[in-house]
Amino acid sequence: MTHKTLYGNKIPAKILERAEARFSRYAKKFSFDPGLSPDLVLCPEGQGFEDFGILTVREKKEGLACQQGFDRDNGIMLGTIRMGFGHCRMAIALASASHSMGYTPYWLDLMSFPDYAASKTIKYLEDLYNLGSRISQRSRLFNSLVWEYVTSGAARKLSFSVEEDILSRIFVPLYRDIPKDLPFFSTHPWTGHAAVGAGMSDVVTIIPDNYPLAFHVVEGSVHAVQSPSSYMGYRTFHSMGSGLRLDHTMPSKDIEMVGHYIDHEIVAGIEEDCASRRRRIKDKETRRFLLTMGGAGAQVLRFADIALTCKEAIEDTKVALLINMGDHRGRWKELESLFTQHGIRWTLHQDWSETRAFIDEARDCPISGVHVFLHDDFYCAVYATNLLMRIADVMITKPSELSFYPVPKLFIQRVGRHEAWGAIRGAEIGDGTIETASVTGLHRLLKLLVEDDDLLDLYCTHILVNKKNGVYNGAYNAVKLAVKNRKRE
User: Is there a single domain that holds both residue 283 and residue 307?
Assistant: First the structure.
């Protein structure tokens, strides 16, 4: 497979040669065999099935209680990779929306096939990305000179899409058993490129963030975006030239603004959740801050600083911290050591049923202290934040995919330049702060959110306005888009 053009724009031969060399390097490193593919089955397993009827795509193996055959009328495929939490979180939102609309979500995680070159390649690249993310939070020099470029400048060039498409040939064999006309959501471009390469005809690329990156462009798919600025950026390939001559834009039929990808349960509960926040403000209840660890586990030192800054307020029951560490047991050990050093007490929640019981009780009952959530199961590690945000007053997060969720947000320092525009989006639509990268600025904002009510009330007001305007209906609209575009032979 070669790519001389992308949407009619010529791609230089040297870029194609470099991309082919990269593909060959990983194909050789992980013994890629294009003729080797798994027999796929659908398994009703884990909390994803319990919550949304998700059927997980697995390789057929003896003793695995699964079913064969895809429902071409009501099935919708969610293509994910277990790299970072944002891609998984978008897939959960789509699963929730599709389930509420009567469809059956299938979950294809390209990391679930450890014997194949596809999963081995992704695991290798994920480890490199996570390492870079963590270093970027500890070294300003590395962040400014290396990581900001890697997460924005390098991935912004339109040629980057071609390079990822060529690499994705390693993933194509995993799709061999999937019906070609099954609606397919790509929550990471590798899954989308592979779906198109496998001949699937109804591929919707779910664009994350709010910063136009050519990395996310998948020719042959329809691109769903969350905001007007993202629509313009991808429609025009804004700033994606970088040495290339771009004479053509993305056709309007290949892009649609759908809104923010949010779980059905969260959207349906917006009025109730904002009313609860306002009641707690009125009753002078303990203010609840939710801190969320990202998939790379890069914010330990920032979390420790926030807890130490709020220590007196926690002890005076003015503030409660809800800290979701995801599945980062190693990062928790670091944070635990810092908490012990500074005399910060905590309660650790590791059992999923106990976590859900705590959240259910906290809807109506006051809470206090520091509560840490740590779950080894990847789905639970991600979804805990989705549940906790509904009982939180403020979510403290880097401006990742969580930027788009309808909860008042305090944005701390980004992990990669591509995240910056998530905070800009949240600040502009009025449900979150501007990105607060400086320590002193963060401390001022924490003090304000503890002692005053106006900012929190303002964000609740705008969340309700945004809901009325359909801002948070992106998951529903994406499902409608996929079903509308379904092609039948």
Answer: yes
